[in-house]
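Observation: inputs received (chain + zinc ion).
Thought: call the complex predictor directly.
Action: predict_structure
Action Input:
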Amino acid sequence: MSGIEGTIIKGVGGSYYVSVSDGLVECHARGKLRRAEQTPMVGDRVSLAMGKDGTGSIEKIQPRKNFLIRPSVANIDALLVVCAAASPQPDLGLLDKLLAIAASKGIEGVVCVNKTDLVSDAQAHELAEIYSRAGYKTLTACAKTQAGVDQICGLIRGRTVAFAGLSGVGKSSLLSLITGRELQVGDVSRIERGRHTTRHVELIPARGGFVLDTPGFSRLEVEGIKAQELRLYFPEMEKLEGQCRFRGCTHTAEPDCAVISAVKTGDIAQSRYESYRQMYETLKDIKEWEENK
Ligand SMILES: Nc1nc2c(ncn2[C@@H]2O[C@H](COP(=O)(O)OP(=O)(O)OP(=O)(O)O)[C@@H](O)[C@H]2O)c(=O)[nH]1
Ligand SMILES: [Mg+2]
Ligand SMILES: [Zn+2]
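Observation:
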C-alpha cells in the first residue's frame, strides 16, 4: 500500500496536496507525525500510504536539505532574487540581504533584473554587472516583452526555485509566463501603498521542477547568521578569505584588509560592501544583546 513518494505543493487547513508522478493526491498527516511534532511543510519530500477513497496519508517526511521560516517552505535549490530596473527603484540592500540569507542556507542565489523595458540597456547592464562581478549568476528579463524568460526556465530544469524580491518587481508576472498559470498581478499604485498581492505559499510544477512565489519574503530578517560568518556569504569577500593581515578579519576596521583594499580599487562594489557593513552591525548587536541577557 505505501511506498509512494511525492512533494508537498500546498497546505490548506489540515490537508496537504502532494505532487506524485501521475498527479496530485490530497493527504492528511498521520497522528504519529503529529506526536513526533513533525509538521509537514510545503516542499517536503514525503512517503504516502493511499487510502481506499483516493486520499493519502503522509507516513514519513524525508530529512530537509534546508528550509525557510517566512514563508514556510523546505528544500529550495535556488533563490531567484528579482529586482526591477525601475518602478520600484532597486533596493540593493534588500537584494544583498536575500542573497546572503540564501547562501547561509546552502541555497544558490541568482539575480534577475526585470522591467528592462523601463531603462536603457546600459542602465540595466550596470545594475546586473554589480552582481555578475560579485560572482552570482545574473539574468536580465522583461515580463512585458518576454525577453529573458527562456533563461529563467533554463534555471529551473528539475529544481525548486523560489522567487523573492520587493513587492511590484514582477515576480508573479514572470511566474505566469513560466508556468502558463494565471497568477494575480498587482497594479503598482496599490503595491506602493504596501499591500502584497501574492499571499499563499504554493509550489507550481514547471519545467520538471517547481517554482514558488514568496510573498512577504522581502521583510525577512537575517536571524540565524552569525556576524563573524557573514563574510563567507558574500562570494566576492569569501574569495579573498585568508588574504587580510589578520586571520578572521571582519573587514570592518582592521589594517591591511584585502576587502577594504578591493572596495577602494573598485573590485568590490561599494553598495555590496555597505550592505555587508549594515548587516554586520545588525548581527553583532543581536549577539551582544543575547549574551547580556
Ligand atoms: N513595464 C513593465 N512592467 C512590468 C514588468 N513586469 C511586471 N510589470 C508590472 O509590474 C506590476 C507588478 O507586477 P507583479 O508581477 O504583480 O509584481 P510582484 O513582484 O508579484 O508583486 P507582489 O506580489 O506584490 O510581491 C504589474 O503592473 C505588472 O504588469 C516588466 O517587465 N515591465
Ligand atoms: Mg506577486
Ligand atoms: Zn579583511
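Thought: report the result.
Final Answer: Residues 270-291 form the longest helix (22 residues). The pocket of magnesium ion (ligand 2) is lined by residues 171-172, 197-198, 213 (CB under 6 Å).
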